[in-house]
């Protein structure tokens, strides 16, 4: 398995970017003119403000999960727009036919059987209500909708407005080269508390990267060891 995490999206408004560049430039110039150790510290702080304005990315905002930049076109149907937040990609090969793996996953009620952090999923058509176990035993709930469903190929979902954890993702099913099914999960999410919250969760073993890796391993084990009852033999 492998995962990729991206976090440096634009998260501050245009006005803040302009103010950061102007203010940072003035602060850096004042620090350089001062020439002392304190002046160089001011210059460094000013340089970081200029970087903030040019890139449009605030590390502080990222850490506390704040965004002042507009979401832009399509935000109504995108839970985590423009790569805001963190991204996790995980893949695993399961020695079962693609249609069988897809059917198991599409019935969301099956997931708590193999995903230990999921306490319950209540399904109503394409809508669902999730209750999961967060850090230190805290429960986190959200509502989601399956908005893309291609039989035996793809399931795509996103959280609904008002969810405590904004997220979107998909699971893809492909025939593996050596037989079986390659399952790929792509998840993009905004953890409560931003990166600080994600680091805290990781310390408690509840960070989604860890969860997905472990859950896919249990899914593989469960499906591969499943023994079907033999068909009755006629007398």
Structure characterization notes:
This protein is α+β, with helices and mostly antiparallel strands and 235 residues long. It has two domains: 14-64, no CATH class; 75-225, 2-Layer Sandwich (Alpha-D-Glucose-1,6-Bisphosphate, Chain A, domain 4). Helices cover 37% and strands 26% of the residues. Strands 1-7-6-5-4-3-2 form a seven-stranded antiparallel β-sheet, with helices on one face. The protein starts with 13 loop residues before the first helix and ends in a 10-residue tail after the last helix.
Question: Topology, please?
Answer:
Elements: H1 14-34, H2 37-55, H3 59-64, E1 86-94, H4 98-106, H5 111-114, E2 118-124, E3 127-133, E4 139-150, E5 154-159, E6 166-175, E7 181-190, H6 194-203, H7 208-225
Antiparallel strand pairs: 1-7, 2-3, 3-4, 4-5, 5-6, 6-7
- Give the tally of β-strands: 7
Major β-sheet profile = 7 strands, antiparallel
Q: Per CATH, which architecture of the largest domain?
A: 2-Layer Sandwich
Instruction: Report mean pLDDT, rounded to a whole number.
Output: 76
Helix content: 25-40%
Oligomer: single chain
CA-to-CA gap between the ends?
Answer: 48 Å
Query: What overall geometry do the principal axes of the alpha carbons give?
Result: elongated
Per CATH, the class of the largest domain reads Alpha Beta
> What is the topology, as strand order, of the major beta sheet?
1-7-6-5-4-3-2
**How many structurally independent domains?**
2
Number of helices: 7
**Uncertain stretches:** 1-7, 72-83, 227-231
> Taking Cα atoms only, what radius of gyration do you get, to the nearest Å?
23 Å
What share of residues are in beta strands? 25-35%
The structure class reads alpha+beta
SSE run: HHHEHHEEEEEEHH
CATH topology of the largest domain: Alpha-D-Glucose-1,6-Bisphosphate, Chain A, domain 4
């Amino acid at each position: 398995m492998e995962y990729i995490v991206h976090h440096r999206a634009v998260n501050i408004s245009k006005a803040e970017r302009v103010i950061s560049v102007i203010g940072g430039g003035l602060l850096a110039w004042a620090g350089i003119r001062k020439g002392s150790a304190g002046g160089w510290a001011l210059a460094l702080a000013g340089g970081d403000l200029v970087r903030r304005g040019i890139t449009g990315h605030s590390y502080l905002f990222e850490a506390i999960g704040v965004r002042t930049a507009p979401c832009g076109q399509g935000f109504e149907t995108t839970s985590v727009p423009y790569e805001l937040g963190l991204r996790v990609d995980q893949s695993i090969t399961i020695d079962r036919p693609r249609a069988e793996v897809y059917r198991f996953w599409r019935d969301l009620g099956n997931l708590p059987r193999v995903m230990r952090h999921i306490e319950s999923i209540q399904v109503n058509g394409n809508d669902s209500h999730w209750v999961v176990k967060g850090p230190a035993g805290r429960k986190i709930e959200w509502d989601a909708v399956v908005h893309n469903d291609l039989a035996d190929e793809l399931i795509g979902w996103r959280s609904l407005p008002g969810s405590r954890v904004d997220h979107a993702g998909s699971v893809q099913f492909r025939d593996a080269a050596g037989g079986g099914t390659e399952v790929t999960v792509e998840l993009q999410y905004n953890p409560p508390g931003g990166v600080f919250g994600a680091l805290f969760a990781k310390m408690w073993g509840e960070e989604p990267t860890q969860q997905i890796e472990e859950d896919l391993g249990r899914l593989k084990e469960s499906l591969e060891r499943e023994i079907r009852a033999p068909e009755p033999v006629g007398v």
